[in-house]
Amino acid sequence: MDNLKLNVSLLRQRVPNLTSAAKSVGLRPATVSNLCTGKIPVGRAEVRTIAALAALAKCSLDELILRGDRIDMIETGIKPLDLFAPIAKGGTVGLVARPGMGQLVLLGELFHHFKRDGYMTILLKPEGEYPELQDMLDDVERVAYSIEEVYDVAVSTPPGKEMMLAADREHVLTGKIYELQERLQQEGHQHVTTFLVDLKGAVVDEDIPYGPLETLWYFDADLAARHMFPAVNPIYSTSSVLEGAHLDQNHASVQQRAQKLLRRYRELRSLVQVRGLQAIPASETEVYQRGERLEAYLTQPFYIAKAYSGREGERVPLQDTLHDVQAILNGSMDHRDVESLTWIGKIN
Q1: Where does 17-119 show beta strands of DSSP type E?
Q2: Transmembrane region positions (predicted)?
Q3: Which residues contact 204 (CB under 8 A, 6 or more apart)?
């Protein structure tokens, strides 16, 4: 049962306004979103939920549920992304943030890595003027001004070459981005991974941000306010790659332990902020301090931000991230100051 997943691309094509459609048949939008990203395994979903989704998509259960298809991960070298919410190759990633939380900086850093790794990087330019987009243009090979222009770039790209496309939510609302994905898939161009942003920030208040997605990155206002970048929430961000059949068991174990620690740390931090460290039981002090170290370690200097931060960018292989996080969880870093773990790559 662990190798089951929803056919997200089919849902995307057949049910463009999934939030309203889900509510109309008595489904909770959050449940549907979690099924799409794999946060709730398909094997644990209620039969009525799956049946209702099949009815909405006007398809059979065999069409809606995919069996045994492996979801490949794209490693980014960005610690919180690779650990908590990896990119599904060929899937769609939604960034959920308000302006000022650093989503475009993160996207720019990703495109910087992708271009160096030989991917075709494409930006579908949004309408209006967004000066903050300028910082990522050096790492975009092609800037397109329409869906048709993106299609032309995609079909002219050499077969087998992976493509990374960034687009604004305006193209989701019209449904054109999903029409493009379906058209490319039908014609055999399955190597496009799409990143969706909402430059206005309205998507934060939506039940199902952007519709069905493989990966969701929620940005955290508290992390952003404390300049703990990338300010990606490690508890609420998720990915279909995290399904048991697709994730290395050591990765799964470290990821789950890290989330558990951070969840409790955040609860304790609320008390400490108001009443000081003495407000929490002595038995919880170790949990708090390790959570503080792990949160610090998940910050990372970016190449594209060097002009502003003065720090050289760092890229951290997933195996190094897993090793370092495991060391923090096991107490091997209890002797290190929090400051020494902040704004570093891997632990030396």
Answers
A1: 65-67, 73-74, 87-88, 92-96
A2: none
A3: 96, 97, 98, 198
Q: Tens digits of per-residue pLDDT, 272-303?
A: 999 989 889 988 999 999 999 999 999 999 99
Helices 176-186 and 147-156: crossing angle in degrees, nearest 10, is 20
d(CA 217, CA 204): 11
How far, in Å, CA of 19 to CA of 49, rounded? 14
Q: CB within 8 A of 201, min separation 6: which ones?
A: 97, 98, 99
Q: What's CA 63's distance to the chain center, in Å?
A: 26
pLDDT on residue 271: 92
**Length of the chain as a residue count:** 348
Question: How large a percentage of the chain has pLDDT more than 70?
Answer: 97
Angle at 287 (CA atoms; ends 283, 292), nearest 5 degrees: 140
Task: Measure the CA–CA gap between 41 and 34, rounded to whole angstroms.
Answer: 8
- The pLDDT of 190-195, averaged and rounded, is 88
pTM above 0.85? yes
CATH class in words for 249-341? mainly alpha
Tokens 């890229």, residue located: 315
Residue 10 amino acid letter: L
| Residue 1: band (very low, low, confident or very high) from pLDDT cuts 50, 70, 90 | very low
State the architecture of 4-67 in CATH terms: Orthogonal Bundle (1.10)
* C-alpha separations of 196 from 83, 170, 177, 191, 211 in Å: 20, 10, 10, 16, 11
pLDDT average, residue stretch 12-18:
83
Domain ranges of the chain: 4-67, 73-242, 249-341
Q: What is the pLDDT of residue 208?
A: 84
CATH topology of domain 73-242: Rossmann fold (3.40.50)
Tell the burial category of 23 from Cβ atoms under 10 Å away from its Cβ (0-12, 13-18, 19+).
middle
Tokens 């902040």, residue? 342
